[in-house]
Automatic annotation (TrEMBL):
One of its GO terms (biological process) is base-excision repair. It holds the Pfam family Adenine_glyco. The keyword Hydrolase applies. It comes from Chryseobacterium taklimakanense. This is DNA-3-methyladenine glycosylase I. Zn(2+) binds at C6, H19, H177, C181. InterPro entries: Adenine_glyco, DNA-3mA_glycosylase, DNA_glycosylase, Tag.
Length: 184
């Protein structure tokens, strides 16, 4: 019997694997949270599939998403990344990633971990929605609005409410698997 999945992931095996094993699973470690923040920020204005298909290239280009290394990137590294055809070569998004790595570490200093900070917006527990159709899944929420606003006041870039909501879905802060999906 074939597994029933959320309809958005039926494009190919890459998407199905991401849906079945990653999307919506709670993430509490700062390294993975930063990885998804970076990938989600590069998605702004593009499809998630475009970013997901380049995930391994991003991982290599951005030192395994090591935010401590990324925070120290200089203009020469930005130019190197701009020449990397394996990633999305958008100077604003690249410099935003460097900025966000620095802001990320500031939040860690204040809260102990970035995870404590970000999960506080959902009281440390995933929000489980029960959408029946893809049309029932919102692009933003009051929580993503509040988190995006707070991130902006902390100096983060490319982390608007839609990007933040997608990040919350990817890292399991919000579970939007459809009610008939095998992953719900």
């Amino acid at each position: 019997m074939e597994k029933i999945r959320c309809g958005w992931c039926e494009k190919d095996d890459l998407y199905r694997d991401y849906h079945d094993h990653i999307w919506g699973k709670p993430v509490y470690d700062d390294e993975t949270i930063f990885e998804f923040m970076t990938l989600e920020s590069f998605q702004a204005g593009l499809s998630w599939y475009t970013v997901l298909s380049k995930r391994e290239n991003f991982k290599k280009a951005f030192d395994d998403f090591d935010y401590k290394k990324i925070a120290a990137y200089d203009e020469a590294k930005v130019e190197e990344l701009m020449k990397n055809t394996g990633i999305i070569r958008n100077r604003m998004k690249i410099t935003a990633t460097i900025n966000n790595a620095r802001r990320f570490m500031e939040v860690q200093k204040q809260f102990g971990t970035f995870s404590k900070y970000i999960w506080s917006f959902v009281n440390g527990q995933p929000i489980i929605n029960h959408p029946k159709t893809l049309e029932d899944v919102p692009a933003t929420s009051e929580i993503s609005d509040a988190l995006a606003k707070d991130l902006k006041t902390r100096g983060f870039k490319f982390m608007g409410s839609t990007v933040v909501y997608a990040h919350m879905q990817a890292t399991g802060m919000i579970c939007d698997h459809l009610v008939d999906c095998h992953c719900k």
